[in-house]
Specification:
Elements (H helix, E strand, L loop, with lengths): L3 E6 L3 E6 L2 E4 L9 H16 L3 E6 L9 H14 L5 E4 L4 H13 L3 E4 L3 H13 L15 H9 L5 E4 L15 E6 L3 E6 L7 E3 L8 H10 L4 E5 L3 H13 L6 E5 L2 E2 L15 H6 L4 H10 L12 H7 L10 E2 L3 H12 L3 H10 L7 H8 L8 H11 L9 H12 L10 H13 L3 H13 L7 H14 L4
Parallel strand pairs: 3-4, 4-5, 11-12, 13-14
Antiparallel strand pairs: 1-2, 6-7, 7-10, 8-9
Helix pairs in contact: 1-9, 1-10, 3-6, 6-7, 9-11
The structure holds glutamic acid (GLU).
Length: about 475
């Protein structure tokens, strides 16, 4: 029984307990982007919510375009996002299973050999259109006699194989409306009419597999209970449900989420590398900024920076996802990043700060002082340098401001300092110079940091220390 585990309980006898098992099934033909991350995360969060399993499946039947290095990079990107698959599978290692399924379909008479060339098919479609018929395959290959087949083979033509869709009563040339229904996790009631589709090619003339059959065979053998994927697969689902049944299996539950597009409405592609997870990581975006945007955009939830995947799982509801494509703005990632960093505890970043050279007894106070001013964690390194080594470059001050800062430095309290040192100092400076507001703090800020904006000076001053402050006398 697929998707089910039999549990022996004394009280209830054998009861089927459904184990939620999901899969993320990219082709390893490039680096994954934020749109692929949406699919991976929808699956991962669904598994988290239901204490289920997550299978990482590489759809690499296209050996020409698939590469192990891309599979490795996808796993790396998933780990970075916080996704740790329970199982990893490669379709290229599972051909025996697909071959066995082909044998079963052939034996059942629902996989048939076709010999048309693409040009012949094209011509047929045109003819059907001019006759006002839908441009679907007319099953002409089913009419071939053994002699005709033998002639094709003798000509050196190899057959491709089509799945006979169950859209007729007894005569395959008399198709009738045949609705396949499923209750989609995202889209609700869905219907595909099998009579509106061509019998899909499952095996090409060179013996290679198209995506349709291996995917179904794997979903059966890996006991996938829920297939969550992009809505570009809705029509495939009609065909695949028929294929599950032809292979004697109950179809899993399906959910098709909307796709992400750029602000100009373009789709994302693994090939172009646009908005790849790798490029976002390298530009200093936090994994939870990517995850928050990838999951929440195009849903009824507000897009906010969620600190971890468990909290994101709480907010995640596939049914709250929009049915149309969602535009998203990459600049929003920086906004989310700022918000995430602002709320990160020192414990969470201690190790990463260490790598940036931020360590020692002041490291925690430093983090608390600067975290509200960072676009990226790596920006902390430049603040650390400013505090330790002085402004780079030193700010040019007007003559009267230079004098003012000199005067202020003469009033700098003796150490030890407490948390009020900034307040106490500036109160004295205000009294002595009559300066206040921006006229007072901006020259001091420029002298201390070399920059017009940044963390609270009240927090920075103790980190610079009395000696460091005096060394900044202009
Ligand atoms: N390899 C397919 C894709 O990337 C998988 C679709 C599916 O999840 O079934 O579109």
């Amino acid at each position: 029984m697929r998707g089910h585990r039999l549990v022996n309980t004394k009280a209830f006898g054998y009861a089927p307990i459904m184990t939620v098992t999901v899969r993320f099934a990219p082709s390893p033909t490039g680096r994954i982007h934020i749109g692929n991350a949406r699919t991976a995360l929808f699956n991962w969060l669904f598994a988290l919510k239901h204490k289920g399993r997550f299978v990482q499946r590489f759809d690499d039947t296209d050996v020409e375009r698939s590469r192990q290095e891309f599979a490795d990079s996808i796993l790396y990107d998933l780990h970075w996002l916080g996704i740790f698959p329970d199982q990893t599978e490669y379709q290229s290692r599972r051909f025996a299973s697909y071959d066995a399924a082909v044998d079963r379909l052939k034996a059942a008479g629902v996989l048939y050999a076709c010999y048309e060339t693409p040009e012949e098919l094209d011509l047929r479609r045109k003819v059907r259109r001019t006759r006002g018929l839908p441009p679907v395959y007319g099953r002409e290959a089913l009419k071939l006699t053994d002699a005709e087949r033998a002639a094709y083979e003798q000509d050196g033509r190899k057959p491709h194989w089509r799945f006979l869709l169950p859209n007729f009563k007894s005569d395959p040339f008399e198709t009738e409306r045949t609705e396949v229904h499923w209750n989609d996790l995202v889209r609700g009631e869905e219907t595909v009419d099998l009579a509106s589709l061509s019998d899909p090619v499952l095996v090409r003339a060179d013996g290679t597999y198209l995506y349709t059959l291996p995917s179904v065979v794997d979903d059966i053998e890996m006991q996938i209970s829920h297939v969550i994927r992009g809505d570009d697969h809705v029509t495939n689902t009609g065909v695949q449900i028929a294929l599950f049944r032809a292979l004697g299996a109950e179809p899993p539950v399906f959910g098709h989420h909307n796709l992400l597009t750029t602000a100009s409405g373009e789709g994302l592609s693994k090939r172009t590398g646009a908005l790849s997870i790798e490029s976002l990581r390298e530009s200093g975006i936090e994994p939870m900024s990517v995850a928050s945007l990838a999951v929440l955009v195009g849903t009824s939830e507000n897009v906010t920076a969620v600190p971890n995947l468990h909290e994101l799982a709480e907010k995640f509801d596939p049914a709250a996802t929009s049915k149309s494509a969602s535009k998203f703005d990459p600049d929003e990632l920086v906004v989310l990043n700022r918000s995430l960093l602002h709320h990160m505890s020192f414990a969470e970043v201690r190790d990463r700060l260490l790598l940036l050279g931020v360590s020692g007894e002041h490291a925690e106070a430093f983090w608390m002082a600067v975290r509200g001013n960072l676009d990226r964690l790596s920006d902390a390194a430049s603040w650390w340098r400013i505090l330790r080594e002085g402004p780079q470059p030193v700010a040019e001050l007007a003559e009267e401001d230079r004098e003012f800062v000199g005067q202020a430095m003469d009033l700098l309290p003796e150490e030890p300092w407490d948390a009020n040192v900034w307040k106490d100092w500036t109160a004295k400076v205000k009294k002595a110079t009559g300066r206040k507001g921006k006229g007072l703090f901006m020259p001091l800020r420029l002298a201390l940091t070399g920059l017009e904006s940044g963390p609270e000076l009240a927090d920075l001053l103790p980190l610079v220390g009395r000696e460091g402050t005096l060394a900044r006398r202009p």
